[in-house]
């Protein structure tokens, strides 16, 4: 082996070692950041303390990294909230997809202990800032472990459709972005479902959903605002979860996304009775006290 070849081999080896070292340092730095963000969110949730949006304190945080934070956070939250029992969709209207340069809605986990029955009550003190939406909800009949291309395929995996309250607690102090939504696992506190209807016989493409607060109308929107039809949003997210290795399973509930901007108020003013109404669905009720 001549001297030039030896020198070239040495240089290549040196740069490979340097590159791998830098990659490891970058990976370690990312893991430290993720751990810090998870701890901040957990502390805010447990102490009812507002924190700065993650998108503000970490302006270059990517959506993929936000999902990594969500996964780590979910493992911690499941210790008190129970196992993951479905997903909440957000940014599920066409304008939000375009604005955020994404092709499918964002999503975060729903935990078993967050799901309440219609007619139950929840403490106002559990919320920092209170918000409520009425959405189209799906219950999964069997595991979706393959990507689906047609709506006919998708319907066969659905047990029932519902309307449901998505009630969020709002831990961020200031305007938020999709990164905050994803990292905080959608940030919802409680979910309330109506009785289920047959997905084949129930038209959900364009129905009006409303919320009444102490008999006053506070929320109203149409289901077509969810990608033109909530079924489309469900299919896109179901396929993405298959790709990520977290397929939807039997019994999971999927909140398909807001039909209108959430109704928001300070938690100390949120006490009262809320009723959700939509088409042929049974009304849903929850008391915040």
Can you walk me through this structure?
The structure is a single chain. This protein has about 290 residues and is an alpha+beta fold. It has a single domain (about 5-289), classed as Fumarylacetoacetase-like, C-terminal domain (Fumarylacetoacetate hydrolase, domain 2, Alpha-Beta Complex). The chain has seven helices and 13 strands. The protein has helices spanning about 5-45, 55, 65-80, 95-100, 150-155, 180-185, 230-245; strands spanning about 85-90, 105-110, 115, 120, 130-140, 160-170, 190-195, 210-215, 215-220, 255, 265, 270-280, 285-289. The longest helix is centred in the first third of the chain and has 45 residues, at about 5-45. It is globular, with a radius of gyration of 22 Å. It starts with a helix and ends with a strand.
Descriptive terms for the model:
Fumarylacetoacetate hydrolase, domain 2; alpha+beta; 289 residues; 13 strands
Provide a compact summary of the structure:
With 289 residues, this protein is of the alpha+beta class. The chain has helices at 3-47, 54-57, 63-81, 94-99, 151-155, 178-183, 230-244; strands at 84-90, 106-111, 115-117, 121-122, 129-140, 158-168, 188-193, 208-213, 216-222, 253-255, 263-266, 272-278, 284-288. It has one domain: Alpha-Beta Complex (Fumarylacetoacetate hydrolase, domain 2).
């Amino acid at each position: 082996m001549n001297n030039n070849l030896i020198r070239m081999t040495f240089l290549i080896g040196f740069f490979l070692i340097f590159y791998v070292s830098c990659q490891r340092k970058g990976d370690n730095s990312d893991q430290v950041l993720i751990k810090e963000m998870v701890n901040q969110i957990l502390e805010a949730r447990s102490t009812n303390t507002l924190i700065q949006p993650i998108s503000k304190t970490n302006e270059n945080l990517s959506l993929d990294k936000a999902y990594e934070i969500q996964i780590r956070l979910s493992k911690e939250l499941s210790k008190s909230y129970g196992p993951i029992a479905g997903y909440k969709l957000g940014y599920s209207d066409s304008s939000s997809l375009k604005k955020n340069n994404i092709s499918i809605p964002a999503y975060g986990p729903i935990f078993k202990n967050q799901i309440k029955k219609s007619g139950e009550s929840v403490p106002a003190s559990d919320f920092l800032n209170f918000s409520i939406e009425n959405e189209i909800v799906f219950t999964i009949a069997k595991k979706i472990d393959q990507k689906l291309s047609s709506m006919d395929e998708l319907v066969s995996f659905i047990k029932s459709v519902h309307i449901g309250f998505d009630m969020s607690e709002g831990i961020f102090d200031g305007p938020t972005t999709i990164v905050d939504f994803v990292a905080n696992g959608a940030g919802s506190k409680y979910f309330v479902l109506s009785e289920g209807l047959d997905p084949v016989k129930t038209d959900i493409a364009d129905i009006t959903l409303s919320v009444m607060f102490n008999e006053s109308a506070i929320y109203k929107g149409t289901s077509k605002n969810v990608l033109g039809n909530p079924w489309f949003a469900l299919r896109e997210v179901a396929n993405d979860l298959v790709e990520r290795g977290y397929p939807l399973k039997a019994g999971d509930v999927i909140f398909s996304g807001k039909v209108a901007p959430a109704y928001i108020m300070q938690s100390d003013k949120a006490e009262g009775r809320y009723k959700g109404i939509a088409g042929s669905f049974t009304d849903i009720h929850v008391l915040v006290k």
